[in-house]
Structures are given as C-alpha cells and as structure tokens.
Specification:
The protein is of the alpha+beta class. The two termini are 50 Å apart. It has five domains: 143 residues, no CATH class; 160 residues, 2-Layer Sandwich (Sulfite Reductase Hemoprotein, domain 1); 75 residues, 2-Layer Sandwich (Alpha-Beta Plaits); 158 residues, 2-Layer Sandwich (Sulfite Reductase Hemoprotein, domain 1); 124 residues, Up-down Bundle (Four Helix Bundle (Hemerythrin (Met), subunit A)). It is built from 24 helices and 20 strands.
Length: 748
Amino acid sequence: MENWKEKLNNKISNELKIEINEFESQMELMRRGKIDPRIFAETRLRRGVYGQRYDNGQRDDGRQLRRLDYPAGDLMKGPDTYWDAPGMLRIKIPFGAVNQEQLIMMADLAEEYADGVLHVTTRQDIQYHYVHIDDMPDIMRRLASVGITTKEACGNVVRNVTACPIAGVCKDESFDVTPYSSALTEFLLGHPDCQDFGRKFKISFSGCYEHACGLVNMHDLGVLAKIKENNGIKKKGFKLFVGGGLGAVAHPAKVFSEFIPEEELLPIAQAIGRVFARLGEKKNRAKARVKFLVAKLGIDEFVKIVMKERAILPHDIRWISYLDKLPAYGEIAKHNPSDFHEKIADPQFNNWLSTNIYFQSQRGYSTITISLPLGDLSSHQTRKLAEIAKEFVGNSIRLNVEQNIVLRWVPNGDLYKIYQKLEKIGLANPGAGTIIDVTSCPGTDTCKLGIASSRGLAGELRTQLAIKSFEMDEAIKGLRIKVSGCFNSCGQHHIADIGFYGNSRTKKGFKIPHFQVVLGGQWNENGGSYGMAMGAVPSQKIPEVVTKITETYIKERNEVNERFQDFIERVGKLYIKSLIEEFMNIPEYEDDKSYYSDWGDPREFSLKDMGIGECAGEIVTREEFELQTAEREVFEAQLEYDNKNYILANKKSYNAMLQAARALIRIEFYDVPNNPKAIVNEFQKRFFETKKFYDKYAKGKFGRYLINRFNDKSEIVNEDNARQYVEESQLFIEAAHSCYAKITSGEV
C-alpha cells in the first residue's frame, strides 16, 4: 500500500496532498474519540463524505455491494459506528468539465470501492454510493492524481460552481463563460471568507438568458454573461442575480446588478461571501440560506452592504490575474469540421439525431448529449465512452445539470459512427432534453430525507413515455418532468413543466407513498418561474396523472402554439385539481396492496428508514473549525515527535498555537494578517493583556507559551525541547477552547 501511495505522490499537487493527509489525521482523531462528532461530521462533509440510507447490503435493483460484510450502522452517530456503515462520496467536477483520464480513473474507483456506478448529479458532480469511510482517503488520493478534488463538495461552503455545458459553442451566448467559472471556482475553493456560512452557497454561470443551461434564477449567486457597449467600445461583464433557491420554499433570485465589469466578478463574489458569513442566520438552519438574508434586508440594502464590503477588501492579485490568460483560452477540436450529407436509412439513428444533437456555432461541428437514465453510468460504459472521446473529440467532455453527458466538437461527418459505438454500449438513448429525459434525485434509494422513491417513479415514467414517444405530439415531447423524493427540490421539481415531490398519507394505520403534483414551472429563461402544488396523488397513479394532464393540454389548448405554462395559468388551479382528483382515492389495504408499496420496492411502504439529512451539514462556527484545525496540527506534531522528526514536531506545534490564537483574534479582528508577528501582537493586546485568555489554575501562563515561543530565536531543536513545545502547544489549545467557551457564553 505504501509503495502505491508513493507512486501517486508524484502526480498529486502539494496542496491536495496536504488536504488529504489532514483528513486522514482527523479520521484518526475520530477513531480515538478525540474530536467532537458534530465537528467531524461537518469536516467530512466538506470533503464530500456523506452518510446515506442503508438497506442490508443490497440495492433496490438487486445489485450487490462490493463488500457484503457491512453491519448496519450510521455515519452520524459517533466513533462506535462511524466505521461500520457504507456512505457516499461526492466528487466535484467544476462546470462539468471532465477528461478521458479522469473518466477512466473514476470508472476504476467505482468498480473497486463502490457498486460500479457513476451517478451524475443535477450540479454536474459525480457521486459514488456504498463506499466505506476507511477507503475514502485512498480514493481521494487516486482522484487527486488526475486533478480531481472532493473538497467542499458538501457542507456549509461554496458548492460546485456550475455552468452551461455548451458554453463556447452556443449560438446564442454573449461570450464563453467557462474561463470565468473556472477562475471563480479556484478563487473561492477553501477561501477563508467562505468558511463561516450557516448553510451552503451555490453559484452558476450562463452565457445567455433565453435557455436553461445555467439556471441563474435559482441560485444563491447567478452570473449571466453580458456585453455593454459605450461609444462603440464593447465591454465584457455580467448581470448578477442573488438570493435564488428552490428547497421547501422556492425564491426567485433578485437582480444584484444589471452589469458589473469582468474584473469585478471575483471581488464582488468575495464581498457577498463575507456579508453572508457575517449577517446570515446561524442558529435556525431552515432560515440560513442567503435567500432569507436578501428577503430580510431587501435587495437594495443587501447590495449597499455588499458594495461597502467590496470597498474595504484588501487587494488580491487573483481578482484580475486570470484575465490575462483569456485570449489564449479555448478548446481545440481534435478533428477538422465536416458536413453530414449522407442519408442514413436507420429510423432509430434519425430519432436519436432529432433530439440528442446540437449544431454548434462553429460550422461543421455538433454537440452530442448522451442521455443517462436516472443519471447512472456503469464503470464499463464509462471506460468505453472514454475510448470514444479519445477517438473523436479528445477531452471536450462535460456533464450537464439534467444528469447527462455532453461530447463537444464532434465533426458532423462522424455522427453516425459515434452513434453506432454508443449504441453498442447502451448509451444511444434518444430523447435528451425531452419529456422522456426525466430528472430525479436519489430519493429513498440512498437519501436519509427521502420520503418516496423518486428514482423508482422516474424510471417508470421514462419507460412508459418512451413507448409512446413515436406518436407523441411535439408540444408534449418538449416538456420537462422532474422528480424529488421530498419537498427539498433536489430533483428541481419547481422549475419543471410537470414536477413531483414525495410525501405520504396514512389510511387506517397504513402509510401510502404519494407525490405532490407541481405544475407550471418554467425551465427556459434560466429557470424563469416556479410551479405550484396542485395536490397529492398515490405514487402508483402518477403515470396516469401524467397522461391525463398532457392529453388534456393537447385537447384544450387555445391554439397550437399555446405554451404549457400559459395553459396551466389560463385554466386555473381549481380545474387542474378536478382533473387529478379521480386518482387520489386509495383502496383498502385488503383490496389492493399495490398502493401500499413504492416503485421499485416490493416491501410495504414505511418511513422508518428515514434519518437526519446531511445536505446542510451541522452549523459549526468558523472558530470551532479553526480550533479543531489547531487540534489536528498538534496531534500531527505528536506523531512527528514519535517518529523522531523533532524539527517538524516543533514547527507543527508552533503552527497549532498560532492557528488557535488566530481563531480567537478573528472574533474581534476578522482580517488579521496570517503571519506570526501580527498574530502574536494581536493576541497579546486583545487577549493576554486583557486577561480574556486566562486560566486561574495556571495563573495565565498558558498564554505566555505562544509569546515565549515567538520570542525564542534559538534554532536548536532536540528531543527534550521538542517534547516541551508539543506539550505546551496542547495546553495552549486547551486554554483557547476555554476562552472561546467564555466568549460565547458571555462571561468575557
């Protein structure tokens, strides 16, 4: 194992290497019971490691797990069960861009450590399910060797930055947003101003307003490409949206600015992060998203506060340094363009061609959308797809928010060849971006918050709709269906033409899976409007509801081009409710037991498997995190001492004290420079001399440990003084915890 790790080390950046080693140290502290489980929960979430629903080592579809010896356990309960239950690992794929080497690595890891499936999410991420926590660091190292991180894939931080998957090749875009989304991703990843949020923060980019590729209206920060012309000079910039979000109560985003120049994108995003960290709700998780802060303050006041924050930000060269690289940015096609002249007498190919191909702005090239049922891709399919990409498009591969994969820069003359290769591996499904292409969250398969089987329903709808697709009216084909397992809208049901979210009803003591019907959402115009709930229907009747609603729309629309949203608004909620009421009746359990089971699960429906959701993570303060980081540093110092690395033990123990002191200082002086002199000076002035940092039993001497260590210019480090430094550091950190407790309780 060590030889394997050593070989990887040369391929892993120092930054990622350090982060993974730190996480491994935190895991060891958790094993020993030396870390607060609440803090470790948020720590692992920020590394993409989730707990998940677990059902006796077997998936609903019958596929066995890689390991069959997992006892039942819960990743949330603490050191006794952390290492028993399989969990989930989320892999960040910024703006959905992935290359061949990464695909192959992810395929191997899914096969070796998970259930052989790569799941594409609605945020352009990849997820593994049924992974043991002991395996996480090794998986992270192998991912890091191909440039992939899981850092901040979850938790109360900036999540994966998404962007239009056809950015750069879109015929309607103002300009390519890819390099800007990449720059913002790198800038905010691990940024100190984004570590103290009460909840997650989501960002998306779009190159145009008309389409839905970026969905900027439903994000905490939506970034829309815009060109402003002044006296004949064109200037690139962005229209910014803030405070959007779905969840239980959907909020359309507000316009933050009609135009900001490109050089202001990063600093304004940073300023928004600082304001959200300072003023956002921390105690009530249900009100902790930025949308609630914007609603509370009002958009004008929120903008005013952010711009004041922007004015005092210390300059950062990264704000504009990336702009110098933009002229050289861009994908390069692997092959020359070509035209598609040949008439292919293959009805299945022509059907696929009509739905899965987008003709790029560059003549002679197309983008192919590979439709993935339920967002799933097997390891075998992934490897074969990497081979196809290598032959035809190189690394021009992206994931999209509808859980599909996109191949860009395909010469038109190669479309049939690629179709044939995709068809051989089961990836030539037609209907991408149509009513057949149903989006779903994980639901009861793996999510602890899932109420009803969103994946089971989505799979059934896809099957039934595909059978009818050849005779389907074009107006129906163009609709979107999205399914969530609960009201939290992870399946984006609010912005679907026809959306569903899971709930339940009870009849004579029996639970019955239901889905609330949500109609009239708008997918286009970047998620332009949200649908409204019309009534809850038993899960088994939902396919019939879809048929009833779509057939009624075709029969009763005012004219052929009346949009579905306009039809729903015109006929009204009361009329729609009357259409679906006939499907709401529930037979007695003895008369028809099928109503009392969910799609894909023959068992009697129950809510007993539900648990505490991990999407939001725990609310852990910045100071608690930084003090825990100091704990990890001093623990690593102890390990270095045991290994007789006394110089490194000394260095780490000193850094641990500095980290703990800075955590306290930042309560009063957020922007304290991160250097020893500034930290020690501020600590002495604010905490030592004021006796805020004071332990009566030690008569204040713990505070002197840091000051003495700073003033000690001796370069001699041996076994004896290294041990002293480590022990003093541990005592200093204990006193820092005590000081923090006094501050939060109001004692000082």
